[in-house]
Structure formats: structure tokens, C-alpha cells
Amino acid sequence: MSEKPHIVKSYEEQLQLLKDTIVKMGTGVEKQLENTIQSLVKKDISLAEKSIKDDELTDKYEINIEEQVVNLIALRQPMAIDLRETVVALKVSSDLERIGDLAKNISKRLTKIGTDLPNDITKNFEIAGLKASKQVNAVLNSYLHRAKDTAENVWNSDEEIDQMTNSNMEAAVKHLEKNKKDIQKVTQLLFMLKNIERIGDHATNIAEQVYFLITGDYLEGDRPKG
Amino acid sequence: MSKIKAENVNVYYGSKQALFDVSIDIAEKEVTALIGPSGCGKSTFLRCLNRMNDVIEICRVEGSIKMDNLELNSRKLDVVRLRENVGMVFQKPNPFPKTIYENVAYGPTIHGIAQSKEEMDQIVETSLKKAALWNEVKDRLDEIGTGLSGGQQQRLCIARAISVSPEVILMDEPCSALDPIATAQIEELIDDLKKEVTIVIVTHSMSQAARVSQKTGFFHLGKLIEFGPTDKIFKNPDNQQTQDYITGRFG
Questions:
Q1: pTM of structure
Q2: How far is B234 from A112, CA to CA, in rounded Å?
Q3: A16 shares contact with chain B (CB less than 8 Å)
Q4: Chain-centroid distance, C-alpha B51
Q5: pLDDT under 50: residue ranges of chain B
């Protein structure tokens, strides 16, 4: 359904502000994740440090969105599409905050172990990380453009990240068997790989919310999992 | 189970058509809310259910409205009996300028329901208890009903309506003149009454429709645009006009 503006302009503005804040938060989280991945790709630790710093802003956005949602529910009693818009914003902001946290966690581990890491594992990490970034970007676009199909695609393709994570974990363990001296670095990398997989899961959660926002229905069936 | 089944109801005030082919199934012992902008026909439809439109000379009702297979729109229908069975509560509390007791006893008296003073006392007490007013008025039943507060007067009107044990109660904006506490008391009462009675309520308060009803119908320009489970109507209506109305995008 294409929506007419509300009769009460201030209500229209409040809902628009909520949507804009989600988009701003999402853009920030995307940048945080990009800096985290690129820190490893470019072997530039300052990018990881930037990602850690930027997480403060992500947390502030989450609180701001929660305040907006509570106010809308208390003062406007939104209905139908407006109710879904409000509830979905709350849930999406919480998933975005988690993505930011996970990016920050990867960055922290990077600052500990440095960028001089076993090439075979970091290559896997980069591929999975870029795939997760793409998923986050796609799901934010689906939110911005109310694109149901894009949300469904994100939901369906998380399987790839799951599979990558499994094979990356196995490869890391194999590397360790041959290079016991790398134990500290590889242990940290295992957590980093797992964090990428969790980021994919949060993108999938957001996809479910976007689908609900647009259709009022829940994505049915079990999500494909690797 | 269906209590009232309206099919292709058309209502005219003179040459002006007020309702267009309204068909609706009102479930027994449920609350059905009718919403829509002023002049949309929801009250006109409500008034069809106890033939209140008969009092408007230029009003003509076509189509079928059956309550338990009894055709309400039939000329042969005993309208007095119908109104005993289908009570009504209005926007503005309208107790008779009589005592609280007499207000409640009025219906049972004219319909010859009570055989003795004791029986009448019992009906008055039960009705006032069901209307959640008994505790507030039991010591002053001989005081005048119009001296009560607005919320109490409305509950007195509900007690008056239920004193003749109707199967259906129609409510036309019953809380629009009441404060939030009195409104909550009426809503609690509606929740309670629906165990025994079918209730149809017209309301301008979207949140009230959402709170009290199980089914909601949205009227616009004399047509029933959408009718369905209340949670569906307020969470994810099928019709764009319904959504525009309930989210304040109308006009």
C-alpha cells in the first residue's frame, strides 16, 4: 500500500524522524563494519580503532530510537502500518546495535593480535566479512525502499555465511594442527569468524522485521541454514 | 455463531441513500464495533437492528436483517417485543426523571415481566449489579436517577436496558460524554456483559473499538468497506481506506 501523509503533520514528522534515525544508525553500523573488515584487508589498525570509537555513536542511536518509540506509543497510539513501523524500528535498532557491537569486538581482537596473521585464514575471514557487509547493506536498502523481495533474498542467503563459517573454522583448526605457534592468533580469529556469522544472523533478523513491516505477515518456514 | 445476519441492506432518507448493500454477520455473545467518519452510516445501520429508523418518517429500509432467523425488517414484526430483545444505550445518558429504582423497573413493568414486588426488587438488584452500579446506589434507590454522575447515569441506562434480559444491546457512542474512569467502567461492563449478551457498539474512539470488540466493521460513505477480526483490522487491514482512516490519513 502506498501511504498518504497523516492529517496531523507533527505525527507524520515524528514517524519520518524515526525512519530517518534508523537509516542513519544503519549507515553508521555499515561504516563501522566496513572499517573493521578493511582494517584486516589493508592491514591498517587505525581503521579498527575507528570502528571501536564509532560504536559509541551506534549505542547512542539505539537509545534515541528507543525513546522515540516509547514516546510514539505513549502519545500517538500508532495503529496498523504505523504500529508496525514503530515496533519494527525498536527491534531493528536492537539488531543494528548488536552488529555494531560485534564489529567492535572483532576490531578489539584485531588491535590485540595485529594484522600480521596467517594468510589462508585472513583470506577466508575477508570473504565472509565482505559477504556479511553486503547482507547488512542489502537489508538496510530493503528497509529504506520497502523492498520485500530484497528482504527475502537476505533471509535466504544467510546460509552462505553459515557454510563459510563452518569451513573457515575447520580450516583454522587444520592450520593450528600444523602451526601450533599461531595458537593465540588463531584462537582470536576463530572468535572473529564466529562474530561474522552472528552479524549475518542479525541481518537476517532485520530482514524478517522488514518483511513484517511491509506485509504484516511473518516470513514462514525454517530459514535455510548452513 | 451468527446472531444477526444482514444482507444487502439499503437505507434511504427520502431520495438520499444512506446505506448501500450492507451485508454483515454479527456473532453471538461477542462485541462488534462499527467505526467510520461522521455520516458514514454506522449509526443508521445500528438503528436498523431495533427498528429505530421507524420513527423517522422519510426513512426506508430495504434488504434482509435476520436475528435468529426472525426477519427484523418485516412489517408484521412486533416492534415492541423486538426492542425488549434488542436494548439500546445512547451517546448521552438519558435516564428517566424518576428514581433509580423506577428507572430500572420501568422495562420489566411495561413488559409485565415481574409478578410480585419481591420479584421486581430482585430484577432491579440483579440489573444494577450486572451494570456494576449496585454498590454505589443500593442505599439510595429512591433518589432521582438524573442526580447521578454522568458515568453512573450511563450505567443506570445500561441497567435499565438489561433489566428486560435482552439478547442484544446496541450502544451508540456510549462513552463519548464520559471521563476516562467512567469509560473504563463501561468497558469493563461490556467485557462482562458479552458473556450473556451480543453487543454492537458504534464508537468514534479507535482505541475503544480496539479494546472492547472482537470484530470491527469500517463504514465509509454508506458502505461497509471492511469487516473482520478486530486485531486484524487494527494491525494489518486489507483495505487501503481502512488503513487510511485508522492511522489518521483520511481525507
A1: 0.87
A2: 52
A3: no
A4: 13
A5: none
